Amino acid sequence: MSSHVEVAIVGAGISGLSAAWELHNLGIESLLVLEANSRVGGRTLNHPLVSGGYVEQGGTWAGPTQTALLNLAQEMGVYIKKGKLEGQTLYGFRQKWTMLDASPTSESDIAQKDFAQAMTTFEALCRTVPLETPWQAPNANILDSMTMGAWIEQNTTTDEARAWFEGCVRQILSGDPNKVSLLWMLHFVHTAGFNDLLETAEDFSFVGGTQQICLNIVERLGERVLLNACVTEISGYDHSLVQLICERGVVYAQQVIVAMMPKTVARIQFHPPLPPIHRQLITQWETMSWIKFHAIYEKPWWQGQIISGHFLSIDSKIEVIDISPEDATRGVIVGLLAPDYATLPESKRQELCLAFLGETFGQAAQQPLEWVEFDWNNQPWTSGCISALPPGLLTSAGSALNSPVGRIHWAGTERSSIWANYIEGAIRAGQNAARDVAGKLRSVSTT
Ligand SMILES: Cc1cc2nc3c(=O)[nH]c(=O)nc-3n(C[C@H](O)[C@H](O)[C@H](O)COP(=O)(O)OP(=O)(O)OC[C@H]3O[C@@H](n4cnc5c(N)ncnc54)[C@H](O)[C@@H]3O)c2cc1C
Ligand SMILES: [Mg+2]
Prior knowledge:
single chain; 447 residues; alpha/beta; FAD/NAD(P)-binding domain; Guanine Nucleotide Dissociation Inhibitor, domain 1; 8-stranded mixed sheet; 7-stranded mixed sheet; 14 helices; 21 strands; globular; binds flavin-adenine dinucleotide; binds magnesium ion; Flavin_MAO; oxidoreductase; Amine oxidase; Amino_oxidase
């Protein structure tokens, strides 16, 4: 195969597909999306169940401020539903379950107050980090030289508050608090909005799953999306025509959008080599992976018997959430396991998870109708679920995140300054790259 297009897009995750759809909406039809995998969607992925229906192995939830996602879903005829059952999270630490109150009043609960105080301090610090240029935050170098864990240690006085905070970071955000940069974490949370991230980010999910949005874009783009087309080489991006070598042949393009996790970009050979700052960014980029599991039951029989269906255990590094459909036609519990579990054999992992479900939801939870797990550690084209940047990288190479190199433009959720690491960020980064590319093509055609 050899083809000539105006725009080549590398990666058919929701970011690359949003870029392609935006270009189409801007009247640019000469485009090709090259996807390494035999499917589209990247980190959005439906899994059909033997017992009927599907579960989502990747990105699932959305909140009311994720307007690019909500609009795109609507445009693609994919409708929202309730994301999960109402109810607060129970935090488990040293065999005790605690429901954290945002504004504790009881003098006796020192740990609750300690936690709330640390959260308030963290929120205020988040707001000091510029969304577009986090490396220009006041004291950026100091914030980036510190780990999130060190900050938690300094800003809490009780073991419980420290453990709850670390548990939030590990389970809800990204990775080991003792390995990720404080500045990175502050920026990550600020791009979402502190309250939106904690309170409304799981309000909705989508009928048919988030991957359906990708599938519907592909249906409209037709043959402009190529599967099993892993791009291994991009050359001539400093000239008038870029050459992309993929498994299926050669593609020549005037402009390129690379819509992948920065870490996976390091596997592509660039001629000439990318500037040093870009190389540093992609080679030092770190990620982490959860293992996601689903337990399916005939009915959500536990509802009404337990006070909440959302448990985050700091002791076990497991988070489980009741996501049963509102009409209670079946019971569905989703779980996220910390990366530590990846080293266990699958059978051992399942045994531990079922025991945990038995303790939290009731003994009958040990006998699900169906059990599904998905290990994102093993996915060749994603290199992890979510980014977990080490100290120092954002201040030394962050400015490469959004600077095009010749005719190469960058997309992928990691490049977004709004809801980075979420589907919303992926869509926005794709749409922004598409608009930049369209601007360049127009300026060429008018000169
Ligand atoms: C378990 C899990 C739970 C999550 N939960 C949520 C959630 O509830 N809500 C939310 O908003 N977000 C969630 N996320 C995050 C969300 O899924 C991602 O932010 C989003 O899907 C990223 O999209 P992307 O297009 O930027 O990247 P990706 O989806 O990673 O797309 C990149 C694409 O590039 C392809 N590719 C890689 N290398 C090459 C190559 N050399 N040549 C060609 N193609 C290549 C890959 O196969 C992939 O299709 C979750 C993610 C995971 C994994
Ligand atoms: Mg994707």
